[in-house]
Amino acid sequence: MLDLDTRGDFARHRRLRSSPAMRRLVAETRLSASDFVYPLFVVPGQGVRAEIASMPGQYHLSLDQIPREAGELRQLGIPAVLLFGLPASKDEDGSGAYADDGIVQDAVRAFKDADPDLLVITDVCLCEYTSHGHCGVIIDGEVDNDRSVDLIARTALSHARAGADIVAPSDMMDGRVAAIRETLDDEGYVQTPIMAYSAKYASAFYGPFRVAADSAPQFGDRRGYQMDPPNVREALLEIEDDINEGADIVMVKPALSYLDVIAKARQEFDAPLAAYNVSGEYAMVKAAAAAGWIDGPRATMEILTSIKRAGADVIITYHAKEAARWLAAGG
Q1: 275 Rama sector, left if φ>0, alpha if ψ -120 to 50, beta otherwise
Q2: pLDDT in tens, 136-194
Q3: Which of 90, 200, 264, 321 is catalytic?
Q4: CATH architecture, range 29-328
Q5: What does the domain layout of the chain look like in residue ranges?
Q6: 200 catalytic residue (yes or no)
Q7: CA–CA gap between residue 207 and residue 256 (Å, rounded)
């Protein structure tokens, strides 16, 4: 047993944990509402604000709801949205993704009208728009990489033309960042950044999103183009390639199960790093909190802090609004 007469011989670490104010003073990782990007699902129609069953607290929103959303985000200090669209109809080639009057394109214009200073990021993919639910064009039963890349680049251009501040390809086709960069530059959108879903894993945590976006594959799965969960070195290669192809921001998705990948990416690369706190991670917290098994706000803030502590500069999260409120209240 320690002789208390020698208590000066050991460190008193608890001195700096003695009160909330003391802990805030010495905190090594600090969250801010300005770290967050808020994902939104836009749908056709009028007066639509329908809660998504798989994601409590998240909504399908029609375009007329956008001014309200923009005002709330401005008040909370959240600087950016990430837009996903549910089209009125789908086809084999996902033509709604690159239509000039597509749902995301119209939503971009509505957000920029409501608040020109809000950063509008668009998810660039085909899965919500294809009748088969895959992220590219199907040829002979397989997702054809190069044909898909052409349409993905076309989609990114249509978003930039609508006024998107950042385009974010999530398809995981090889070479799509280079194709988007070339297409944007050729059309005069040299200043439009690309935020690449660089290390996007084939994850079970996307389930609630696929319900929300009506984007589940109608056959097979996405393991042939999304990353295999055991691989880390491959993720670093994907990130490096995207940076070399012209990505301005790179992303790891999901976040919580891949904190090690975020940390390694932060160590290896200086590019801005985003992490996506995905729908399954969100839904688990909501379900456990609703059952009374965990303290929802504390668990949420602990998760978001861990993502930033791992090295993320940008956190895409469905918790953005509530977390911003808790931070403003000193939580």
Answers
A1: beta
A2: 777 777 878 888 899 999 999 999 999 999 999 988 889 999 999 999 999 999 999 99
A3: 200
A4: Alpha-Beta Barrel (3.20)
A5: 29-328
A6: yes
A7: 15
